[in-house]
Amino acid sequence: MAMVASDISRSAARPTVAGRALATYKLIGVEPISGACGCEISGVDLRQPLAADMIAEIMTAFEHFAVIVFRDQDLTPEEHKAFSRYFGEIMELPQAPTYGDHRDMQEVRREADEPENVVPSFENFHTDSPFLLRPPKCIVMRALDVPRWGGDTAFSNAYLVYENLSDGLKQLLDGLEVVYSGADIWSKNEKLPPEKRLRLRESHDLTPDQLTSVHPAVRVHPITGRKALYVTTAYFKHFVGWSEAESRALLAYLQSLAQQLHYHCRVKWQKNTLIVWDNRFTLHRGVHDFKFERRHLVRTTVLGERPLGPTDLRAQ
Ligand SMILES: [Fe+2]
To answer: Is the pLDDT of residue 153 over 60?
Structure first.
């Protein structure tokens, strides 16, 4: 059958993945994980300081795929931090347990004898710490110990969720703000049965006021201007000017969209896998489908900008 003109122009166009045309990479290997987000990067040794042109390619892949995965990276904590600083300033978190003596690293750990339902509130897709005035830009996480099967981390692309909404709902969300608060997580945690409690950091320097923030429901990338949904159940209180019941109804619908498989990628951890994910424009969740095995991941958290909304862009 003869090709029509539109087919020819499409086949000549650069391949499209994660909602954008694939860039050309000269120094690193880039293999997309799914059509929605995530790529594996090869040809980089993260123990070494990296050349500026290689960092630029890694950042291009990070902006495009929002989740970048490196394999076989046997790093010391200092090497892990040095790589993280290419993305920005490392921050401490008030709530997540720290890793050993490193106050500026956190750990996610489940021992082999712990039940699989130990972190119920984070079994939904979420972004980390949206209650902070400047929530994390990205998380740099490395696997020390992984189950033989299961314990993957899944990601959902919040740009694509927003881009696939109707114009009517986009317009509504563009004008909305969300109140997020982490002020009550310690008191809520204490009321849970011990086996369901989160491992939380016991002390931090933030005041209750610093644990609550109002952010736009639609977040805009500060450089590209691309828009993404920034509404998620974890720490959500309500939309500004809306009742809690109204807020929860819309939230439930929006959260259901993030579950759809065509927005996802899923990464299987191996020992020394390192993942950097954009915490501003993706949602993530650990998959707790493993039993009687240890899972130990360590991470740094990189400080983000105060979230920009569509009205902030118009004001510039
Ligand atoms: Fe998380």
So the answer is: yes
Tens of pLDDT, residues 12-25: 578 999 999 999 99
What's the pLDDT tens digit per position in 236-258?
A: 999 999 999 999 999 999 999 99
Q: How far apart are CA 44 and CA 35, in angstroms?
A: 23
Q: What is the dihedral of CA 105, 108, 111, 115, to 10 degrees?
A: 150
For residue 59, which phi and psi values (nearest 5 degrees)?
-70, -35
Q: Is residue 1 part of a domain?
A: no
Residue 197 CA to ligand 1 centre (angstroms): 15
Rounded distance from Cα 298 to ligand 1 centre (Å): 12
Q: Are 66 and 53 in contact (CB under 8 A)?
A: no
Q: Write the CATH number for 95.
A: 3.60.130.10
Q: How many CB atoms lie within 10 A of CB 273?
A: 20
Give the pairing of strands 264-267 and 274-278: unpaired
CA of 250 to the centre of ligand 1 (A): 22
Q: Using CA of residue 302, residue 306, residue 311, residue 314, what is the dihedral sign?
A: negative
**Ligand 1 center from residue 21 Cα (angstroms):** 29
CA of 153 to the centre of ligand 1 (A): 10
Ligand 1 centroid to residue 284 C-alpha, Å: 6
Q: Calculate how far, in angstroms, residue 276's C-alpha sits from the geometric centre of ligand 1.
A: 13
User: What is the extent of the structural domain holding 169?
Assistant: 19-306+308-312
Instruction: For residue 66, report the distance from its CA to the centre of ligand 1, in Å.
Output: 15
For residue 2, tell me if it sits in a domain.
no
Looking at residue 206, its amino acid is L
Q: Is the entire prediction scored with pTM above 0.85? A: yes
Distance 260 CA to ligand 1 centre (A): 19
